Q: What sequence folds into this?
């Protein structure tokens, strides 16, 4: 069974860069036909897709966040990382990493991690 676990600071100051890592166990992030994404849910709002990295390392980002978002991976550790720059309080949310299968959609979710942007 594939498990995903987010880790990173729970509090980030405005204008800083938020960095979260998703550690995957029970399966490889290089397995064909799987995508690894970051999603977030601000308080009182719906889920927002932020971007993904594919099994081959290609990346795709939400147009609204593209200028501030970077996703990269460490295959030796079976981890992928989200960096979101120039954060504001509007970036306060629960952040989730997700494994999706091509043609089938989301398969496995991390438990989510709360990130608050505040001075």
A:
């Amino acid at each position: 069974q594939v498990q995903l676990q987010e880790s990173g600071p729970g509090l980030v100051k405005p204008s800083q860069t938020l960095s979260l890592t998703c550690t995957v166990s029970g399966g490889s992030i290089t397995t064909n036909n799987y995508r690894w994404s970051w999603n977030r849910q601000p308080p009182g709002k719906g889920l927002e897709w932020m971007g993904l990295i594919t099994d081959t390392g290609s990346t795709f980002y939400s147009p609204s966040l593209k200028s501030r978002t970077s996703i990269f991976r460490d295959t030796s550790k079976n981890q992928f990382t989200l960096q979101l720059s120039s954060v504001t309080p509007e970036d306060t949310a629960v952040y989730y990493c997700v494994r999706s299968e091509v043609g089938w959609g989301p398969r496995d979710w991390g438990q989510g991690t709360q990130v608050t942007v505040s001075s």
Observations:
- The chain is about 0% helix and 55% strand.
- The mean pLDDT is 97.
